[in-house]
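Memo to structure team: turn this sequence into structure tokens by end of day. - J.P.
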Amino acid sequence: MKTKIKIFNIIVFASALLLFACSESFLDTQPRGVLSVDNYYKTDAEAASGALACYDLVQDQQFGIWTGSYLVRMVLGDEAITGGGGRGDQPGYEELNEFNFGPNNPFMGGLYAGCYRIINRCNTLLAYVANDSPAKKINIAEAKCLRALANFELVTLYGGNASLVTHLLGPSEYQQAPGGEANFWAAIETDLKDAATDLPLKSAYSANDKYRVSKGFAQALLGKAYLYQGKYDEAAAIFETVISSAEYSLVPVTTVAEMQNIFKTSQEFGRESLFEVSFSSTSSRDWGNFNWGNNRLNENCVTWQLMGARGEYFGDFTPIGMSGGWGFGYPNPLVDALFLSEGPANNIRRRASLMSSAELTAAGVQVGNGSGTLAYGYAGFIRVKYASWLSERGGPVGELNYGTNLRYMRYADVLLMAAEANILKTSADNTKARGYINQVRTRAGLGAATETDANLFNRIVKEREMELVFEGWRYMDLMRWIKNGKMTEAQVQTLMDACIPYLPKGAGNVPYRKAWQTKYKLLAIPEQEILTNPNAKQNDGYY
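Reply from structure team:
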């Protein structure tokens, strides 16, 4: 059954001096009917509600109404075109997609703030929940794991100039100095090791608790943290622990529909999933009661409606089981070119990711509106992974009631990260790495990797791009490969700049997309933080 995560925020009332006073005893009177934070979190149920509050903010940080980590991470790479209803529909995403952004980009700032909201909520639980029952012990471990997740995104996207907040801050601590990259990684490792010790295995959770982080996810995220630091021996060891736990496996597929189902509600919390950001299609939202100002009150995922091809520029999508969307995140044709260079056009992994104009036409979907005009940003392909599937939504207004969960980490990702770690560790184990790569390729209907051991890392680069396309990790992969010396900045610039011919152009056929620059290895520390915090430090290249 679909788990709906909803939590009423704990309201803490501050005392205020009255304009007139009667007596000291009157001023000392305790308010009635109000539960302070000092008196909350005492029972297992209260601690559990605090943990749910942490998940609630993870949901919002990954997928707000218009902003979120997923969308920011995806449009930064070379796999998607912002699109939308037309030029200027969402300028903030156009800036990110076209490498024309600075510290005042609203979505970059929203993601930054969202990470700290998660951290604050986790720190609240950790400050007030006593480790005095088995249930609370798990809640504490959940908070540490989710805090590590938020810090992971901060340090990988913004670097060490972000602030590292490891406890509830008092007023005198609000203006934090940069945390330092090494300190971030140390805190992440500590939190994930603690969490992995106390979290249950995924199989130990009941059906209603599958949304919760597990031992396996904490271990896999720790492995990912090691990988990003170039600690390949440690990464290989912890990934092996996850793999050998027998908690996870690739979902076998023989058809395109079965591959597509990996990302639909029918496969939620399945054996391939380590952690999902949860949503519900039963919120019964319509155009009148949808909360455009606070997505946490909706509990559904409007992002999938954003990702659907712009409805008015296509014919009826029902022949392929989809509906028209709002036209964001069209595939870059270079993605299809990579798929075709690796296998036949009917390869199930490719067809479960995107469709071409020719394939849409053959399926009975008209491309272009009645006048033949194409949608803004459309470059010949629509995406079908995480898109506007009719089967994934509820009523009364389908566009506002998508319930598809985001797979934050899948077992296929773990296998490819484990392969990378085994290739790059001190004593390389290319045989094991090749075996993990081939598991992913075999499931996709492809043959074994043919690269020599010396070129096996190049297979990882291509395999991650194809397997994880549109899942939001491509840009972060490229940036960590630069950082760890596995790619040069020139190589990444070539990849980014190759997209320019396929993205929208302005007057005089001049591309909007700018050439990639070194400064974009990290996002800018948001302008608001720089202006209000005298201890803040901006990342190189931003002003």
